[in-house]
Design a protein that fits this description.
The protein is of the alpha/beta class. The protein is built from 7 helices and 10 strands.
């Protein structure tokens, strides 16, 4: 095993975000040529094509040698025990689309707090967020624009008639009367996913996904990870509705 094969030399997509973990420990194990297990649940697998002929990475369940390190590639925020002897790290492909509904004038702080609360409650990594989706009448909402600019998140907006055509688990007649669609957050998140998948299909882009658990989740149930959650604050004016969906294609922008 060559000493040149290190963690930093993996051809991981630049849009993926590093999460928590013992990066020094996993890197040292790879440099020594020791077995490092990779558990990839989401994101492109094209990076595997650039691995050298001899490497010490093994995919989950394929190796019989003692594991000396582990790499998780997931949208989940894992908490690693500090006393663990096995070094572990996590990468977060940007596969989560956050649908947002909010009152006019809602602050960036309240929107960001609502998103963070959902991520903590559902153990989702903020680093896995691809972007924000909402109704087109919110395209100039200052709080949303400030947040997206600060976090480098694209803002996708959809017309009410597009959103209203999407089947969601928690539609609202009140919302429909106010904005012309029974769902903004849930439908927005799902529309963002549909738009990305459609674009890849039209461009005939190779979608390199080979994650049985994610495939089964999306095809067997629903890509909506988090149904709509409404947040209000006594200290900040406004309310925010949040929903989160997972896309089979990671955002590489």
């Amino acid at each position: 095993m060559s000493d040149e094969f290190t963690l930093d030399r993996l051809d991981i997509p630049s849009s993926w975000n590093r999460g928590e973990g013992d990066w020094t420990g996993v890197g040292a194990a790879m440099k020594r040529g020791e077995t490092v297990e990779v558990i990839q649940e989401v994101g492109s697998i094209l990076w595997r094509n650039s691995l050298p002929e001899k490497h010490s990475l093994y995919w989950e369940g394929e190796n019989l040698s003692p594991i000396k390190g582990r790499i998780w590639i997931s949208f989940t925020q894992r908490r690693f025990a500090p006393e663990s002897a096995l070094p572990k790290v996590q990468w977060h492909p940007r596969v989560l689309w956050v649908g947002i509904g909010c009152n006019a004038g809602t602050s960036r702080e309240l929107i960001e707090t609502a998103i963070q609360s959902v991520c903590r409650a559902y153990h989702l990594a903020e680093g896995a967020i691809a972007g924000i989706a909402t109704i087109d009448t919110k395209a100039s909402e200052i709080g949303l624009l400030e947040l997206c600019q600060a976090r480098n998140w694209p803002l996708k907006t959809f017309a009410a008639d597009v959103l209203s055509s999407v089947e969601v688990p928690n539609s609202s007649n009140i919302v429909a009367q106010e904005v012309g669609t029974p769902s903004v957050a849930e439908a927005g998140a799902l529309c963002a996913i549909a738009q990305i998948v459609t674009a890849h299909q039209q461009q005939k882009t190779q979608i390199s996904i080979n994650h049985p658990r994610l495939f089964a989740f999306i095809c067997g149930s629903h890509p909506l990870l988090v149904p709509k959650k409404v947040f209000r604050s006594e200290k900040m004016l406004g309310s925010v509705t949040v929903a989160v969906a997972v896309c089979p294609i990671d955002y590489l922008g």
